[in-house]
Amino acid sequence: MATPSSRTVEVNVNEAVCIYKADSQIEVIVGYESRTFGDGEIRRRESLTRLKTTAYTYLLRTKPSGERVVLRDPASAWVLSNGVDPSNGDTVEVKPAYVLAGSELLVRYTDAGEGKLEREIVTGGEGGRIVCPEANQSIRKFDWDPASFGTFWSFNYVRVQTLELIVPDVFLLDEGIKCTYRLGLSYKWNGVHGIKQLLSQGGNDPTPLLVAAARIDLTAQKGDGTGPWKELSRVAGWSGMELESCLVLACDEDVTPEEQIGRDYVKAILEQKAAVQKRLFEAEVDITILSKRSEQWAANYERVAKVKTDYMMAMNVVAKGAGGRDRGYSRVVACCCCSVASKVSASIWGQGEGGGGGGGSLNQLVDDSAKVGVSGSASAENGVDTSVKIKWADEIEKPPAPSPAPCPAPAPYGGGYGGGYEPAPAPYVPKVR
């Protein structure tokens, strides 16, 4: 492409340039073309953009006078950045065509002049069709409630569709409350006849009428939503719809701000009560566990104490019996035996709960002067078992008394001391000072 300072303007293929001349003339050059201009003849130039149609679009030309022209595929136009064709001043737009499936229809209006509009329902037919309105035609767009239908321009009169209705202010007299219901409707448009019936009512959004009809049916049903939906079916048919089914999706009770404050207060109290009950339960569980542990500890301590006591008693008795008449010796032996008994009992407690086993017996019979006998035994096999038996003097079998030794013959008098029999002299016992 030529530079602005050049007298020659060269335009490549698939390009176009608008030349504004010094004499206020406009010239459009479409490539490939090369043009030469005189000095000062070009005031400025601007590149153009090409608009063209496809199988699903068309060009709409609006002349300065307001007249509109529709150009179907194939069609194209070179325009400036503002969409104006510099060669004639027309405003050019690319419009999407209306593609109808075989089960769809739309409403087209034609300006017949003198303020008259002719309405026509166009169906997709077999295999569908592409509708490009003429310059004097328009396709009606339905701008209904966005929460229900939204904005659309075609109706499908074969497919079953769904619609959600919010029905507030439903009074249930038996319960004395007011509720808001959420309903799910299944319906389909009743063909060309149904759309004509809808258009005869003005073609407005039927949602408010459906909500009012559903409120009447819900009040008659006392809020259970089990049907029948007489009023709702009647209004739907009047709006060109064929009602298939209606289900209650949700029901919320309407409450005033004061009632809501009271409910929140009660809810907070119940939550606190539940928290306290949970803590009390956890505390009771902990107390129960500690009590069981304490009982087990006490039982274990009692068994240990019993084992030690039994062995100490047995060993004390044995030690005292072994001492005989000598009380000092008896005490010493008893003390030593007590120490041994304590060590033995502790050793048995530390090992008695393990594996293995053993047994032993200790018997002591004291003469009749001690007048006591002891029999003790101990065994351990996965535990400790002790037993002590004490027999008193009347229970002990006394051995037969020995025969007295024969008295020695008296020495002859005076033997060694002058003859005859004389008593032997007493032994010498030194005096202790």
Describe this structure in words.
This protein has five helices and 24 strands. It is of the alpha+beta class and 433 residues long. The strands form nine sheets. Strands 12, 13, 15 and 18 form a four-stranded antiparallel sheet that branches. The protein has a three-stranded antiparallel sheet with strand order 3-2-5, with no helix packed on it. A hairpin with a 3-residue loop joins strand 23 and strand 24 (385-392).
Taking all residues together, what is the mean pLDDT? 77
Profile the largest sheet: 4 strands, antiparallel
The ordered H/E elements are EEEEEEEEEEEEEEEEEEEEHHHEHHEEE
Strand percent estimate: 25-35%
Uncertain segments: 324-393, 413-421
Structural class: alpha+beta
C-alpha termini separation: 158 Å
Characteristics of this structure?
elongated; alpha+beta; four-stranded antiparallel β-sheet; three-stranded antiparallel β-sheet; 5 helices; 433 residues
What is the fold's blueprint, element by element?
Elements: E1 8-11, E2 16-21, E3 26-30, E4 33-36, E5 42-47, E6 49-52, E7 57-62, E8 68-71, E9 76-79, E10 91-96, E11 98-100, E12 104-113, E13 116-123, E14 129-131, E15 137-139, E16 142-143, E17 151-152, E18 154-156, E19 161-172, E20 177-189, H1 191-200, H2 207-220, H3 230-238, E21 241-254, H4 257-323, H5 327-352, E22 357-365, E23 372-381, E24 385-392
